[in-house]
Amino acid sequence: QKEVEQNSGPLSVPEGAIASLNCTYSDRGSQSFFWYRQYSGKSPELIMSIYSNGDKEDGRFTAQLNKASQYVSLLIRDSQPSDSATYLCAVFPIQGAQKLVFGQGTRLTINP
Amino acid sequence: NAGVTQTPKFRILKIGQSMTLQCAQDMNHNYMYWYRQDPGMGLKLIYYSVGAGITDKGEVPNGYNVSRSTTEDFPLRLELAAPSQTSVYFCASSYGQGGYGSYEQYFGPGTRLTVT
Fold it and tell me: How far is A11 from chain B (nearest CA, A)?
């Protein structure tokens, strides 16, 4: 089992709809969770961090964390074509070396 | 703050040549990382460092070497370049001193390397 799993997509969403991206992780003791956005040919950019169970909202983005079920999700409301990118989930495990574990990423396409 | 900077942006190497990819950060971060990303694939950790003088291997260290003599700089050395090292290389850093927010990683713009 991979440590951090994401559906690779592509996920296609119409403009203005809600895009929902999901991520599961294997280390039950993980404490820190991150979402990165990566445009084609660019470096990953941190867009959300979440540390506690529940929802965290930042503009059109909402991160949701459920530690009991070991999943973290990212919702993008009112999706725009500029949201088309690959979204990477990253987890900081409580055990092991001091490094983030990244998922493979989900490619999201917003259709005008 | 410039954040994380990387040089060069692009490089073409011949098989067997060597080169150093430069990475620097001005955020007083303790932790630094090198990743490679092949086309359409995820990030693979090559090496990382939790402080000056301390380095450790990631998942794909073969063919690479690193050093960390200062907090700011973390160069990646490629010895005897091979076509399999054709990739985009990203450097990243994080504060890493504990507490929420310490492990948020910030990435440089990347170096696109082709070995022919």
Answer: 15
